[in-house]
Predict the 3D structure of the following.
Amino acid sequence: MMADTPILEVENLVVETTGHKPTRILDAISFAISAGETLCLVGESGSGKSVTSLATMGLLPPGALVARSGQIRLAGENVLAATPAQLLALRGRHMAMIFQEPMTALNPVLSVGRQLDEVLCQHTSQTAPQRRARVLEVFEQVHLPDVERIYTSYPHQLSGGQRQRIMIAMALLLKPQLLIADEPTTALDVTTQHQILALIKQLQREHGTAVLFITHDMGVVVDIADRVCVMHHGQLVESGPVDQVLGNPQEAYTQRLLAAVPSLLPRPPREATSNKTVLEVQSLEKVFNANQGLMRWLRKPVAPTRAVDDVSFVLKRGRTLGIVGESGSGKSTLARCVMRLITPTGGNIRVSGKQITELPKSMLKPHRKRIQMIFQDPNRSLNPRMTVGQSLIEGPTNYGTPRREALARGRELLELVGLPVDAIDRYPHQFSGGQRQRIAIARALAMEPEVIVADEAVSALDVSVQAQVLKLLNEIQLRLGIAVLFITHDLRVAAQICDDVLVMQRGRLIEYGPAAQVLAQPKAEYTRQLMEAAPGRSWDFAAGAPLKPLLSPVETP
Amino acid sequence: MHASHSHFTVAPEGRGVSRLLSRLSQTRPQGVTLAAGLVLILIVAVALFAPWLANHDPLALSPANRLKPMGSEFWLGTDPYGRDLYSRIVYGARVSLTVGLGVAVTSVAIGLPLGLLAGYFRTLDAILMRIMDGLMAIPGILLAIAIVSLTSASLWTVMIAIMVPEIPQVVRLVRSRVLATREEAFVEAAILMGTSTPKLLWRHLMPSTLAPLIVQGTYICASAILTEAILSFLGAGIGTETPSWGNIMSEGRVYFQLKPSLIFWAGLLLSACILSINLLGDSARDALDPKMKRRMS
């Protein structure tokens, strides 16, 4: 299957920042990719994966990064020594790139057909009908439906998955020998991600393209890679065939990285610690109605959006309920309703037995204390102009705790979340992402809440940091008996932290029950699809071996 | 631990001329900011010590000494009424700086709370911003001339006349910052922690508007100085009994061909003053830009 002469050879590549005190970004990176082979560059943020791909494309930001030494040979040509004109030709003919976010990579004011036509115009001397035929042919190859309609569509008229297919079509248009994919599925839902990965694999088989695939997701690696290069702080830590690196990792860093990947197998059920219901939601409903005020008179009525539709659940003290779903399933709207950041249009929310659904904003204050939130991005959830201490005491002082007392408590909390006590006088930007999320947790705990709502609280973190934060949440829950409403799109995380799981789709509750039951023996077809689409479901990261089928056969009722 | 983001934010490298050019395009050289600061300090000093620096009464008419050339007694010569030009220009600095600073401070002081309220309360926003739109629709100079003509032309009316059209700019700026910041997760977090609305506005929303406000303030200051000079030049400003750079030039206009220095010195100082305030504003903008700040630390 693999040809002997590599398409891409990178040898001892060193990339540094420019300026008086150069920092080394890539330190003697070497790898090669043959035709028909997929090489995965995997690593956490800041490991130098993306810089490697940019260097390969000859796209290092001028004036910021420079390749100091080493070689990049693409089909025998040296990329680093190429003139801009040669690079342009190389990029068209021999290599192409797919980016993470197709919406920003496509021009919003041109139809997608025209954008692909432009590529052919630039690099070939085909006539207009030939070009159109070729574009439609490539659209067929990437399995886009109704290609004639897609040709005249604008990016915003297509779904995220379709846009990524367009990007792949654009990359394949000139039949490149090397395809560089930089986190191409990170912004997509699991089911769409599954389809795109399958598509890349199929196209690679058919055309013998070499693929350089960059990802932080070990599950994706299992699904797509032939060989893996693990990167850490700009160095190549370990490389080899996928089975070998994942099954028998030699380096300590690789072992740590793999151990941090949460398993898809639900964790063993925990004993219920208390019978006290702290959060109860009954047939909650949130309808966004565009037909209000003058618009009702001026416009043809549009169907209102039912973001949350008849969702009920119960959360007991000391338990974790996971709300799982793809983007647009209404899980964040549900969280915002529960927090009363927005007012639900129907149903009941009871926090410790107190009905808070229809309380006006001014009367919510006594109840806000009981339920606190941890946000997805710790860079944005902490006020950058306030010290950690000021952030920690803000809530308690609002409820009348003296400043001195609140600060003392803040120090205790910092210790509890594993941060040094002197962190209290520092500003959020002086901490890493994982540490900032710890501060956010400490801030939520400062209110001594009964419920914590964590909205994608670990999604922005690297996998090893994610594991630490999950561990911390678990410990805190054991010590303080707080109930957690954990909102996530990541089934692996849900399997590791939740006692119960609630699956949502398009605002509706699909399945609700104990995690072991919902994730291992799903009754609903949709849950089953989600589980099957989870990347790397065939691999047991803890054991380092392929996994026996996770889902038991469907039970016929 | 947080250094990983700083890799791309390093000054460019190059040699000789290309390096100099790329530097110039990226950041203003320190020297320019320093020179601008010195010029402004000099003008402020002139305004503060005017009674000691002026060697004549700026208002004393002396028909015998009309249109004298530069000399040892009248350093910059005299105007058509025999008043000492040098002393008038020195006192004129007081008018310009008072108007500039006064307008900048008052328009920010009025615009900041209005902008905060408009950005946070959606219903108030609809009303307030339409009023601001109405104010903005009227050309500033025209409005100022109308206000000064309807009232007596004193320093106060001139300042109010210049300030009123500047307020919508400040309100819009503050409102846009508040609209952007209120969506941030830390604002929602504060709401969830029971922070009251006045506290929320003051502690979480106001600080993010300060940096752009300081920059906007310097531009308002420069533009107010210029507007005052224009109004005086057009005869709609402060009366000639109070010397200002604008009315000095206005009076000199008639004799411009005969004696260009009547306009030249006041014009030169006005240009130097406005240029240095604008340059300092640009430096303030760079220094307050959080991205640039990270670059320096």
Remarks:
- Chain B touches chain A at residues 1-2, 4, 7-13, 22, 184-186, 188-196, 199, 203-204, 207-208, 290, 294 (CB under 8 Å).
